[in-house]
Amino acid sequence: MRVFVTGGTGTIGSPVLAELLGNGHTVLALARSEASATALSDAGAEVLRGTLSDLDALRDGVRRTDGVIHLAFGHEAATPDALAREIVTETDALATMGHELSGSDRPIVVASGTPWVVGRASTEADPPPTEGPVGGRGRAVLALLDLASQGVRSVAVRIPRTAHDDGNGGFAGVLATTARRTGVAGYPGDGTQRWPAVHARDAAVLFRLALESAPAGTSWHAVDEEGVAVRDIAAVIGRRLGLPVQPVPTAEFGPYGEIFMLDQPASSRHTRDVLGWRTTHPGLLEDLENLCP
């Protein structure tokens, strides 16, 4: 299959490219900079220059390929307004690509986030949040999944709060970045809240499986560990960086602070049973031992 990929140089995007190319697919990858274009080309992908807001480039990418994996998102947004703008950009991009795929029965696999449910681990059957800081993303993904009735094999792969590789990536990566900036390995609240996690290279396998075989309108969980206590994450970061570990105000974590406070374990039992997905890479706390001081 020839696959159009957005976000192909990110923590998850890079292993997704390797997974696709290593399993007989070819890749046309969107690149917003010369550096990204070089990295994608070196990885073995054909490059399409453009950004997520360049809707003509997205249409071109869809027309030239057999399916789409969408991973691009501005997770570096530092303020609520910046996050809201990123969500609007992604919403328009998904609507554009979905419309271009209409009636073709071609797949589009979109990266989403695991939902949270009070009192239990969320499952693949739970809907994404449609209110709050990332509610716009949930609404955009639901709209894409609804295109299953219009001849689009639309699929969501939900990524846990931390998709990690060599100690980098996801919410744990934000904790580490904030620690370096502030001189404190901080965590919000009492730190007992749990975040699900997955190694990025394990997540990449699930994106390929979903592209190849997941039914239209379905959601899947790329979750290895159902929940790791945030205080334990901060403790490893503090030890690796030589910094004190202590609670800090949620404002230290920008627009994601409200989400950081939530206890949000997630299950992947259905995903493993149906798609045969298996994880083989280190868990989060072990992988954080690779964090550079």
Walk me through the structure.
One of its GO terms (cellular component) is cytoplasm. Pfam families: Epimerase (PF01370). The chain has 293 residues and is α/β, with parallel strands linked by helices. The chain folds into 2 domains: 2-161 and 198-224, NAD(P)-binding Rossmann-like Domain (Rossmann fold, 3-Layer(aba) Sandwich), CATH 3.40.50.720; 163-195 and 226-267 and 281-288, UDP-galactose 4-epimerase, domain 1 (Alpha-Beta Complex). The chain is built from 11 helices and 12 strands. The chain has helices at 13-21, 34-43, 55-63, 80-101, 135-146, 170-182, 200-213, 230-241, 257-260, 269-275, 284-288, and strands at residues 2-6, 26-31, 46-49, 67-70, 107-113, 153-159, 162-164, 185-187, 194-199, 218-221, 225-229, 245-247. The strands form 3 sheets. The protein has a 7-stranded parallel β-sheet with strand order 3-2-1-4-5-6-10, sandwiched between helices. Strands 7-9-11 form a 3-stranded mixed β-sheet. A two-stranded parallel ribbon has the order 8-12. β5, α5 (135-146) and β6 form a beta-alpha-beta unit. α1 crosses α7, α4 (80-101) packs parallel to α5 and α6 (170-182) crosses α8. The chain starts with a strand and ends in a 5-residue tail after the last helix.
For the report, how would you describe the main beta sheet?
Answer: 7 strands, parallel
- What is the third-level CATH name, the topology of the largest domain? Rossmann fold
Cα shape: globular
Domain module count:
2
- The percent range for strand residues is 15-25%
Mean pLDDT: 94
Structural class: alpha/beta
Percent helix range: 25-40%
- Can you count the beta strands? 12
> Which strand order does the major sheet show?
3-2-1-4-5-6-10
Query: Any low-confidence stretches, pLDDT <50, length ≥5?
Result: none
CATH class of the largest domain: Alpha Beta
CATH superfamily (homologous) name of the largest domain: NAD(P)-binding Rossmann-like Domain
Shape-level CATH architecture of the largest domain = 3-Layer(aba) Sandwich
Please give the count of helices. Answer: 11
What is the chain-wise order of helices and strands? EHEHEHEHEHEEHEEHEEHEHHH
Rounded to the nearest angstrom, the distance between the terminal CA atoms is 41 Å
Radius of gyration: 18 Å
GO molecular function: aldehyde dehydrogenase (NAD+) activity
Domain NAD-dependent epimerase/dehydratase: 3-215
InterPro entries: Epimerase_deHydtase, NAD(P)-bd_dom_sf, NAD(P)-dependent_oxidoreduct
Protein name: SDR family oxidoreductase
